[in-house]
Amino acid sequence: MSKWQGEHGTRSSLAGLREADDVDQTLQNLLRALTLNLELRARYRVFEFEATQDGHAETARLFHELRESAGEQIAGLMTGLRDRLGPDAASTEGIA
Known about the structure:
The chain is mostly helical. Helix content is about 65%, strand content about 5%.
């Protein structure tokens, strides 16, 4: 069985990876940063909508740009996560 597979198959969720016994601090940090960025990107979408509804187009544009930037950070973190997981990185497809 692969290092990144549990008894029920490949760990394919952030929670599954975080809960593994063999996770070192670097992998924990990648997972934590990815989780925080995913949550923040989702919040930026809400903030953008609310700013638009309140008539603050410039602030809505700022939240939109921040959301796009978070998307780029997420892509970078996913690359780092795949690199860290090595050959079993296919299990990270579809996480983000």
